[in-house]
Write a structure and sequence with these properties.
Helix content: 25-40%
Shape: globular
Structural class: alpha/beta
Largest sheet: 7 strands, mixed
Radius of gyration: 16 Å
Number of helices: 5
Strand content: 15-25%
């Protein structure tokens, strides 16, 4: 494929809590998620644009990750990302303006894994097998490709260049709350 280099960074939301009586869309991050979301931000270079699910756990992941950068890039919260199958996620990604070179997509399992598997025409070592086996919370997959604009992104056209799972550290004394957070 020809065109400028582009990068799609796929981030699964950080670990959520399961409070009684709270609808799935409204579930907050749990203690581990509050630690891991900032670690994800530290592991990433700021994108040109972020697309994020409207679910509370995804929005909070974005907030904590973006707080780790000098300046947060623009973000668009899109309800279509919540519980989306891979084809819908690809449709949302294809709406990205052509001037965006690096896009961050924050969403949910299993749609994200399916999107990664479908787009990755190649991957180093066992990277793709690791995505298939488990794409855990806070996992970050990086897909590189070339194209005139985002509408050209299609199954098999990207290279899965990395898969990482950033984890935050417990505070001294075993507390799981990052600085500035109240349990």
């Amino acid at each position: 494929m020809s065109g400028p280099a582009r990068r799609l960074v796929v981030l699964r939301h950080a670990k959520s809590a399961w409070p009684d009586g709270v609808p799935d869309h409204d579930r907050p991050l749990g203690p581990r998620g509050l630690r891991d979301a900032p670690a994800a931000g530290r592991a990433l270079d700021p994108p040109d644009l972020a697309l994020c699910s409207t679910a509370v756990r995804a929005r909070r992941t974005w907030d904590l990750a973006a707080a780790e950068w000098d300046a947060a890039p623009p973000v668009r919260f899109d309800r279509r990302i919540y519980e989306a199958p891979p084809a819908r996620l690809l449709g949302v990604v294809r709406e990205t303006p052509p001037e965006v070179r690096t896009l961050l997509l924050i969403g949910h399992s299993p749609g994200l894994e399916g999107l990664i598997e479908g787009l990755a025409g190649e991957a180093p070592g066992n990277t793709l097998e690791r995505v298939r086996a488990k794409f855990p919370t806070s996992a970050v997959a990086v897909l590189d490709w070339n194209g005139a604009d985002w509408t050209a992104l299609a199954p098999g056209t990207a290279r899965l260049t990395s898969l990482t799972v950033p984890r935050g550290e417990r505070a001294p004394g075993g507390a799981e709350t990052p600085r500035g957070e109240q349990p």
